[in-house]
């Protein structure tokens, strides 16, 4: 597939040496729709320093407090996630916490509940705490403790590991998660980072991309293509994945910048 980047795109101030990528988490929220599984997407504000104007899944960088070992936790432990993501236990804990925190901050969806078998059905009562998380006035562990909630790591599934190309000055080592939309909750666009948010089938989102109605970074486009292969939500959540780091390269061709993936023509020469 031709992954030409938007007209006018130029890698910003490419560093002489690759910048060390920061850890980040992205969550692909899924729900059953009349035409099959749907994904929750957000179009980022154009002025954002990273991926401005792009259509993405909720997510963001790890905060140092995401590694707080006191967080109330239910489901596979940090050791299990560390094996899946090929990282330390501390980083794995931070990634899972960042996935839950960022999803709540950016979409209002909270993957937590009063105990290990329940999930919050209505998050509107936590709107003030949501803003406190955004402003970093409270940590995820502190918020959960204050509200008597438990992080539900068992509601997340490891999906992929993407790394920003070496040419970029802002780089992220991002772990992708899958999660089913909790019953009773509502995903919204109450965030300063998104110009709009909506649900769409993967097929519709990819059609919008091909026809120029939205812009997708390679990880989003590939993930949507993978989601399009499933005709039911349980099948996607049950899929077994072997994760390896995937790092695209940027090449200039015919006056446009293109992203190429390992195994694609031009990757080895870039």
UniProtKB/TrEMBL annotation:
User: Does this entry carry the keyword Protein transport?
Assistant: no
Tell me which cofactor or cofactors this protein depends on. Mg(2+); Mn(2+)
Q: Which Gene3D superfamilies match?
A: Nucleoside Triphosphate Pyrophosphohydrolase (3.90.79.10)
Keywords annotated in UniProt: Hydrolase, Magnesium, Manganese, Metal-binding
Q: Which domain of life is it from?
A: Bacteria
Q: Does the keyword Zinc-finger apply?
A: no
Q: Which residue range or ranges hold the Nudix hydrolase domain?
A: 21-222
In this chain, the stretch annotated as Disordered covers 1-20
One annotated GO molecular function is: hydrolase activity, acting on acid anhydrides, in phosphorus-containing anhydrides
Q: Give the matching InterPro entries.
A: NUDIX_hydrolase-like_dom_sf (IPR015797), NUDIX_hydrolase_dom (IPR000086), NUDT19 (IPR039121)
Q: What is this protein called?
A: NUDIX hydrolase
- Organism, by scientific name, is Saccharopolyspora rhizosphaerae
């Amino acid at each position: 597939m031709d992954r030409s980047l938007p007209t006018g795109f130029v890698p910003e101030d490419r560093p002489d040496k690759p910048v060390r990528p920061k850890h980040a988490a992205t969550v692909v929220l899924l729900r059953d729709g009349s035409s099959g599984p749907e994904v929750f997407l957000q179009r980022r504000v154009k002025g954002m320093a990273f991926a401005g104007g792009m259509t993405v899944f909720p997510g963001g960088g790890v905060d140092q407090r995401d590694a707080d070992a006191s967080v109330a936790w239910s489901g596979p432990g940090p050791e299990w996630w560390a094996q899946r993501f090929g990282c330390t236990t501390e980083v794995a804990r931070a990634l899972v916490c960042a996935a839950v925190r960022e999803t709540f901050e950016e979409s209002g969806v909270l993957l937590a509940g009063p105990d290990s078998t329940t999930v919050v059905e209505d998050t509107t009562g936590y709107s003030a705490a949501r803003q406190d998380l955004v402003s970093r006035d409270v940590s995820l562990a502190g918020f959960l403790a204050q509200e008597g909630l438990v992080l539900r790591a068992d509601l997340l599934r490891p999906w992929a590991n993407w790394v920003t190309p070496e040419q970029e000055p802002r780089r992220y080592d991002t772990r992708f998660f899958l999660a089913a939309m909790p019953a009773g909750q509502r995903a919204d666009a109450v965030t300063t980072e998104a110009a709009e948010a909506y649900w769409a089938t993967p097929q519709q989102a990819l059609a919008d991309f091909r026809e120029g109605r939205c812009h997708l970074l390679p990880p989003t486009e590939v993930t949507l293509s993978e989601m399009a292969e499933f005709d039911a939500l349980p099948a996607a959540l049950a899929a077994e994945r072997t994760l390896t780091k995937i790092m695209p390269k940027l090449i200039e061709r015919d006056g446009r910048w293109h992203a190429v993936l390992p195994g694609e023509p031009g990757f080895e020469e870039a």
